[in-house]
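hi! just following up on the protien thing from before. the input was this:
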Amino acid sequence: MGTFVALLRSINVGGRNRVPMADLGDLVRSLGFGNVETYLQSGNVVFTGSGAPAGVGRALEEGIRTRFGLEVPVVVRSKPQLARVVKGNPYAGLGADPTTVHVTFLARAPDPAHREELVRLGAESGPGGAYGDDRMTPVGVDIYLYCPGGYGETKLTNAFVERRSGAVATTRNWRTVTALAGMVGIEAPGI
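and the predicted 3d structure came back as:
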C-alpha cells in the first residue's frame, strides 16, 4: 500500500471540465483506493492504494473519461516522490510569498533533447533574463518556478513548459504543494 497525490490538469478552471470534488472523491473510492481526501476545487486528491504512479494516473484518467465524459490528464506522485519535490525546492530560503513559487509536475521525464532545452531555458531565466525576473529550474521530472510578479503574468506557463518538455504537465503553487505534503504527513519547509 502506498500513498498518492493525484494532480488533475484543467478541471474546474474557467467553467470548463467541471467535476465536483465530492464526485471526484467518490470516483477514486470506486476504483478501489482508500483514505480519499480532496483539496481545493482544482483537482487535487490524496489517497492510498497499490500500483505505480503512472498506472494509477492512467486508471484515474480512464475513470474520469468513463464517469464524467472528460479527457483530463492526471499526474500522480507517490509520497516519496512528493517528499523529494518538497525537499528539492531550489527557491527555499528566498523569503518569498509562497504563491509566487510553483512546481510544474510533468507526467513523465522529458527525453534528452527536451531535457537539454529545459536546462538551457532555465539558465536564461532570472533577473535580467529572457523572462523578466521569473526563474525556472528543472529538477528531475519536475520544474520549479519563481514568479515574483505572479503566475498570471509569467511567460513560463504550463503550456510553455508542456511545449518545451514534450510532456503533459500541471502546475501548483507552493502553498498548495505544502498543503498536499502535509496531508500525506510530509513536513514542508517555508520559502
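The first helix runs from residue 21 to 30.
The chain has a mean pLDDT of 93.
cheers
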